[in-house]
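Extended Data, panel c. Modelled sequence:
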Amino acid sequence: MNGSKLMDFSVSEYFNHLKGAGLGSLPGMSAEILDAEERNLISTGHIPVDNWLGVIRTAHGLGIPTTPTML
């Protein structure tokens, strides 16, 4: 989400630009805790669960696979 904010794009617009430049997947999303209460305790500073899910759903909707390892 930081990149989309810096470029003043929606997440979808940002991913479309990246995909057009050759992005094939979004790797490196390890240990994402999706229980909001636990995430707030363990993953301080990470984006809220609903935002994270929105980003992932946007990526999948554009045909960009992701690789989270812990949900």
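The chain has a mean pLDDT of 88. This feature is highlighted in the accompanying rendering.
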